[in-house]
Amino acid sequence: MDTEGSQISLSSVDNSPHDPCKMFIGGLSWQTTQEGLNEYFCKFGEVKECMVMRDPVTKRSRGFGFVTYIDQAGVDKVLAQNRHELDSKTILQSSHPLPWRQLCTLLAFSQPASPGILV
């Protein structure tokens, strides 16, 4: 997957190990930027990587992104908080991990504004 969010290769997704420090962040406002996402989530721990996925043609946000922490402590702090709000939009969290293939299928067929944080 590139930083523009233009490709998801199921073969590379299936063969890569699940990173427990990488969180799927759903339900983002269309106005949420990569900088805003990073600024919000760095309150919980040191962020290694942060991205808002964008449509490769229009460059508009796709309503979701990923945050990867340096260690598990950041993820645990995010999950410990019951409610998250960013850019006037509530982001609901779930501590139930999904296999990458199931996550890709969910993203392909879900409504663009469906909220959620998945680890």
TrEMBL record:
GO cellular component annotations of the record: cytoplasm
Xref: SUPFAM superfamilies: RNA-binding domain, RBD
RRM domain location: 21-98
ATP-binding listed as a keyword: no
GO molecular function, one term: mRNA binding
Domain of life: Eukaryota
Coiled-coil intervals: none
An annotated GO BP: regulation of translation
Keywords: Repeat, RNA-binding
InterPro entries: Nucleotide-bd_a/b_plait_sf (IPR012677), RBD_domain_sf (IPR035979), RRM_dom (IPR000504)
Methyltransferase listed as a keyword: no
PANTHER family xref list: RNA-BINDING PROTEIN MUSASHI HOMOLOG 1, RNA-BINDING PROTEIN MUSASHI HOMOLOG RBP6
Protein name: RRM domain-containing protein
